[in-house]
């Protein structure tokens, strides 16, 4: 951007400099520069950068038009910029720490200029799996924040300035939120410049700024109009003569000292003075302003008027060229414009070059790799307001037709020169939408969302983009292509957001998730694509699992699995088998284990699976391994379960972006605890809990928190465990997932009962929780949680001396277990039996107690049989329950 006359802003400049100095002294922070469009935010930042100083200045911008959808837009620009300035020897991967490296590969590929090369390196480091999230938003955001900090370390002290932050994407906001907490003792100053009114329309950005200010982590700096002396000075600088004091005052009043208007007026004035016939004086500027604007007409009209005063001097051809260019956006390509005006590129390139030099309405921008690959120059309009004015001056049909052509041209370029930067891919979607070319818009949205889901770590934007694509597809009449896209878009949206599915019904009683998966199922069926249909069927089963519980889900899941086996398609078999095999054990452990084994052996080593880059497929691969581990445990085979999970977890840790780590750690923690390795279990749970900062509710965080709290109270009688459980319950309530909430409730109750010996009030809380849990599990058919709740109610009533009621509950639990032949996932049979025997004993039923204890002991011995040597000893000696069972009478 060419430098322009700049006046005043001395106070603001001094404030920013003070922040810079403070950062240099090791006390970083955040500064938000605010004000309306054209008030001079960018100009001020440019000024600060140009003045140079004790720090490295890194100017960044959020891209016009697509900013809010561009996951990590400015931060990836920052990483790319830094990487370019770094010597080869020092490049990032050599220097990064272990945990960082493991999360980095997927994120890397978002940066087009160096993604592919570094990704190769990353793959050799972390194994042969290309990107594969289901990504956990928070972890990704934190990784990016870490990456940014790590990168900045080489340049410290450093001032990072993000301009146009009102357009920033939600993922960047999440990363900045992490970053902000690290800044206090880092020599890093972050400056965000934003239009205040538009900031309000961007919720993640608004929340970020409000939150930072609330916690005193950021300061706001508001820009207003220029004062009279500054206006006079600007006139002098631009026009070359000093206005009278009264004229300067009048102009200031009429423009509000608004720099954008002033710049345009004064440069207009300068041009007029240069014309031979011009007999105007500077005073006329003010007159014209007054004439143009009645007090009612706002700033926008004045802006339009001054811009047109300049545009009117262009030839018709030049004006048309810029008009067309404004449809592409604030930045545009000479190649695209040439195609639209149907003229040779060379001629258009020459005219744009001349326009840039003579008018300053546009200026050239450094082309990136993609621009170069399509052989185009890239230009930017001098100001957003200029592009907006030109764009608004076209009729709707003109705009639509131009968007349509731009969509076609850019679409073709993206085919010939693949891997366009994220911003270009998103812009393509926008042009198709503006042209109302719904099918193309949906397809482009699916492409870019897929790429983002595979390579990126930004669920938020994946969901936003797919939702938009879905909206588009719904606007058109059905065709098999549209139906396929509709199903695919829903599939991607639901899969990407699984970690935060909300299952509560809307006000009208519908459950949005179910409505979506049902819509996808219908669409996949009409599209006539068998593999897609199988995948959607299993997705639908999964949704039902969350919304209605296991029994409702098993039907569609079994169907998907049977169809998959019939089709012989390895990927379908894996996906359907993984999910069915994961849910079936909740009703039938042995049958579930068998489905998992069959799936594993069927797809083992098949390249369609092993080399598949689809994140959904990769996730299923690892999920299958974890599920086999926990199912072995549920079947009482503690030894094999330990072996399998201990070997799988390191691989899952390396692929943290898959989003499976919270699940895997939980499984292993459960088995370690059951084997008597209590400290190991607690450490794993601590690791799992720390994966999430609790800022957004997520079901697995709640579960891990609950398990951790339980370990603390049960193993160490540590009262600090209870608040964790309370928090877990609140979080589980928020996500309201049918399969997780009762689990958490039961864990909480277990700990309350254990701690009630010293504080009997806990009995009341526990009773209330268990009774609620019981009615909830009866409604959703979560049998295992129902049995556990019954047994716990039995224990509770025994403890308060109500043996009759205790027996009623506990016997019901035992009966239900007997019905399933003593095998049910996630239910510790010997525990239920042991406590039942105590209740029976209290009631004087010695024989019954004896029998229950005998069964419990048999169960313990059966499990011990899967262990050998010291592990077996440990299981029998270090697990409190097992000891009590073997020491018990009977
Ligand atoms: N202090 C100043 N002195 C002289 N000219 C200025 C000053 N501040 C801004 N301008 C001019 O006013 C115009 C608008 O300024 P700028 O682009 O910085 O506004 P902005 O607040 O960044 O607007 P937007 O929100 O649209 O990005 C530019 O032409 C700029 O050169
Ligand atoms: Mg600006």
UniProtKB/TrEMBL annotation:
Domain Orc1-like AAA ATPase: 6-191
GO MF: adenylate cyclase activity; ATP binding
A Pfam family that the UniProt record links to this protein: AAA_16
UniProt keyword annotations, A-Z: ATP-binding, Nucleotide-binding
Keyword Lyase on entry: no
SUPFAM superfamilies in alphabetical order: P-loop containing nucleoside triphosphate hydrolases (SSF52540)
Transmembrane residue ranges: none
One Gene Ontology term, aspect cellular component: cytoplasm
InterPro entries: AAA_16 (IPR041664), P-loop_NTPase (IPR027417), TPR-like_helical_dom_sf (IPR011990)
Gene3D superfamilies for the chain: P-loop containing nucleotide triphosphate hydrolases, Tetratricopeptide repeat domain
Signal peptide (UniProt feature, chain positions): none
Protein name, as recorded: Tetratricopeptide (TPR) repeat protein
């Amino acid at each position: 951007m060419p430098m322009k006359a700049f006046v005043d802003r001395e106070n603001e400049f001094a404030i920013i400099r003070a922040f810079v100095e403070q950062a240099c002294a090791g006390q970083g922070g955040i500064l938000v520069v605010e004000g309306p469009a054209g008030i001079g935010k960018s100009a001020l930042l440019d000024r600060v950068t140009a003045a140079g100083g004790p720090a490295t200045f890194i100017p960044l911008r959020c891209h016009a038009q697509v900013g809010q959808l561009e996951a990590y837009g400015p931060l990836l620009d920052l990483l790319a910029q830094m990487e370019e300035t770094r010597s080869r020897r020092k490049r990032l991967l050599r220097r990064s720490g272990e945990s960082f490296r493991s999360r980095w590969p997927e994120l890397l590929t978002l940066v087009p200029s160096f993604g592919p090369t570094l990704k190769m390196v990353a793959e050799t480091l972390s194994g042969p799996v290309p990107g594969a999230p289901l990504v956990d938003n928070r972890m990704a955001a934190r990784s990016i924040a870490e990456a940014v900090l790590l990168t900045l370390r080489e340049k410290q002290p450093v001032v990072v300035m993000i301009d146009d932050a009102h357009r920033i994407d939600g993922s960047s906001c999440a990363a900045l939120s992490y970053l902000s907490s690290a800044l206090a003792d880092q020599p890093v100053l972050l400056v965000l410049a934003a239009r205040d009114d538009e900031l309000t329309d961007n919720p993640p950005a608004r929340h970020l700024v409000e939150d930072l200010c609330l916690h005193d982590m950021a300061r706001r700096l508001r820009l207003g109009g220029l004062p009279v002396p500054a206006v006079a000075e600007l006139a002098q600088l631009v026009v070359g003569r000093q206005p009278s004091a009264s004229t300067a005052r009048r102009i200031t009043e009429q423009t509000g000292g608004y720099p954008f208007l002033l710049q345009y007026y004064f440069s207009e004035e300068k041009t007029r003075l240069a014309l031979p016939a011009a007999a105007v004086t500077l005073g006329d500027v003010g007159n014209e302003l007054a004439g143009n604007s009645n007090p009612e007409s706002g700033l926008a009209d004045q802006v339009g008027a001054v811009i047109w005063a300049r545009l009117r001097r262009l030839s018709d051809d030049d004006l048309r060229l810029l008009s067309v260019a404004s449809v592409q956006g604030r930045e545009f390509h000479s190649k695209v414009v040439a195609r639209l005006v149907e003229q040779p590129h060379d001629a258009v390139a020459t005219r744009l070059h001349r326009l840039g030099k003579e008018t300053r309405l546009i200026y050239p921008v450094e082309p990136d790799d993609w621009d170069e690959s399509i052989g185009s120059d890239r230009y930017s309009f001098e100001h957003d307001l200029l592009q907006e004015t030109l764009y608004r001056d076209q009729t709707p049909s003109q705009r639509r037709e131009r968007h349509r052509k731009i969509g076609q041209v850019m679409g073709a370029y993206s085919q010939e020169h693949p891997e366009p930067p994220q911003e270009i891919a998103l812009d393509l979607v926008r042009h198709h939408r503006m042209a109302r070319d719904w099918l193309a818009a949906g397809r482009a949205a699916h492409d870019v969302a897929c790429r983002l889901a595979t390579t990126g770590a930004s669920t938020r934007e994946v969901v936003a983009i797919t939702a938009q694509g879905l909206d588009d597809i719904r606007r058109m009449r059905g065709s098999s292509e549209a139906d396929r896209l509709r199903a695919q878009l829903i599939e991607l949206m639901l899969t990407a957001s699984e970690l935060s599915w909300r299952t509560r019904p809307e006000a009208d009683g519908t459950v949005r998730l179910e409505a979506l998966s049902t819509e996808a199922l219908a669409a996949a069926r009409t599209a006539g694509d068998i593999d897609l249909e199988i995948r959607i069927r299993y997705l639908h089963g999964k949704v039902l699992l969350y919304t209605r519980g296991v029994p409702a889900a098993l039907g569609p899941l079994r169907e998907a699995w049977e169809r998959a086996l019939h089709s012989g398609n390895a990927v379908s078999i894996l996906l359907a088998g993984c999910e069915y095999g994961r849910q079936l054990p909740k009703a039938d452990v042995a049958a579930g284990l068998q489905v998992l084994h069959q799936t594993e052996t069927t797809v083992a080593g098949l390249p369609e699976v092993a080399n598949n880059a689809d994140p959904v497929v990769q996730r299923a691969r690892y999920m299958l391994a974890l599920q086999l581990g926990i199912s072995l445990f549920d079947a009482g085979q503690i030894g094999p379960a330990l072996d399998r999970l201990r070997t799988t977890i390191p691989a899952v840790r390396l692929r943290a972006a898959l989003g499976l780590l919270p699940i895997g750690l939980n499984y292993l923690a459960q088995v370690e605890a059951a084997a008597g390795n209590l400290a190991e279990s607690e450490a794993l749970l601590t690791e799992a809990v720390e994966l999430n900062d609790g800022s957004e509710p997520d079901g697995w965080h709640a579960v891990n928190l609950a398990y951790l709290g339980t370990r603390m109270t049960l193993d160490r009688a540590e009262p600090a465990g209870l608040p964790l459980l309370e928090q877990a319950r609140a979080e589980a309530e928020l996500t309201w997932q049918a399969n997780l909430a009762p689990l958490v409730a039961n864990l909480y109750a277990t700990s309350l009962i254990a701690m009630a010996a010293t504080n009997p009030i806990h009995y009341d809380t526990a009773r209330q929780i268990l009774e609620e849990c019981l009615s909830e599990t009866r409604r959703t058919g979560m049998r295992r949680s129902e049995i556990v709740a019954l047994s716990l109610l039995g224990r509770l009533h025994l403890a308060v001396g109500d043996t009759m009621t205790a027996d009623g509950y506990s016997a019901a639990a035992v009966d239900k277990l007997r019905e399933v032949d003593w095998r049910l996932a996630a239910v510790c049979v010997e525990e239920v039996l042991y406590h039942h025997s105590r209740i029976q004993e209290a009631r004087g039923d010695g024989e019954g107690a004896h029998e229950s204890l005998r069964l419990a002991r048999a169960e313990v011995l059966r499990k011990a049989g899967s262990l050998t040597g010291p592990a077996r000893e440990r299981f029998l000696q270090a697990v409190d329950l097992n000891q009590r069972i073997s020491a018990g009478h009977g």
